[in-house]
Amino acid sequence: MGVKKYRKGQKQFWRIDTWITFPNGKRKRFKKAGIPSKEMAVALEMKVQTEAFEGRFFDRTTESTLTVPKAWENYKPVSNRHRSSNTEANIARTLIRHLGSEPVMQLTVGSVDQYRSRRFRETTRTGEAPAPATLDREVEMLKRILNYATACGHIPHNPLTAVKFLRVPNTRRTVVYEGDFEKLYEHADDWFRPILVVAYETGMRREEILDLRWEQVSLREGVIRLAAQDTKTQQPRTIIMTDRVMKAIQSQPRPLSGGHVFINPRTKKRWNEIRLMMRRTAKAAKIKGLWFHDLRRSFVTNARRRGIPESVVMQMSGHKTREVFARYNIIGEQDLREAQEIFQAGREKELSELKKAGGDGEN
Questions:
Q1: 261 CB contacts (<8 Å, ≥6 apart)?
Q2: 178-331 is a CATH 1.10.443.10 domain
Q3: Which residues, listed in sequence order, are joined to residue 218 by a DSSP beta bridge?
Q4: Which residues contact 54 (CB under 8 A, 6 or more apart)?
Q5: Domain-by-domain residue ranges, the chain?
Q6: How many whole angstroms separate alpha carbon 293 and alpha carbon 286?
Q7: Which residue of 231, 300, 326, 347 has the lowest C-beta tally within 10 Å?
Q8: d(CA 296, CA 330)
Q9: pLDDT tens string 242-254
Q10: What's the sign of the alpha-carbon dihedral 205, 74, 103, 33?
Q11: pLDDT of 363
Q12: pTM here?
């Protein structure tokens, strides 16, 4: 009884099985399954128990007037507990700008299609239309907000359950090699250079770098230790620092009280946004269309090309699945040529050994 976890296929859900008590003392069993998270299930159970106690449990005759802004306000405390809360807040502003006045129970698959059409006519800061993957993230979050509203009893069901994602491949292939990185480093501001080095030589994610604290760093051992709560995949990770990364970390002032490693000299707080600086530095270095996240892809590709086994690179970069890792591991024509040369050299070595042993070498 109560809130229980269960699995359906590869997905995890929560169910409620509890008794509710009415003001007249009568009890009724309440069941509901398919709830996406434990906190949603607990919230719904408390909602049902309260409504039953107040005699409002069956007041479901009027249609919900809940709008997207109100649904977001209800979900916002949950979002604030996530590392990606700033990103989710930006997505919420976009959703509200397009869907703010419409009751959520009037949203349909057609409403989402119209939303996508309007978004594709807009331009981002790069001067291009939003990528399909961006729109998928926005729609996924809208569905998550409505799932939470359903679990809390604010709406009878999620009207967008049938909405499908676009799933258009959005794989970037930009890789920075040593020559380009040296140009990038040369044109960067002094405070930005250590951040670039850490990103390029460890493959750490942007938030992992900007949120790095001195207590996670051991200069004596030459390691950075990230706990599960510090990573996107909720998996702890140990990062061995290169000599250049060690020097970059050592160049930062270290207060006796600890705190963040990389501090904005103007605000005296951790950096929250570095995209503008990245664009400015890339432009000065004449590297077109470079994103900060491309440095993570560059680390993965360079590590693999230097002979580190892929399984070890995945551990170094913190990639949880082979599928995601493959999007970061860019294999070009030069890689294929080098692989063919290795294959050919191996064949010639085997033929040579066979001839020495007296075999004919060809079948």
A1: 212, 213, 214, 217, 249, 252
A2: yes
A3: 223
A4: 23
A5: 2-53, 69-151, 178-331
A6: 18
A7: 347
A8: 12
A9: 999 999 999 999 9
A10: positive
A11: 47
A12: 0.60
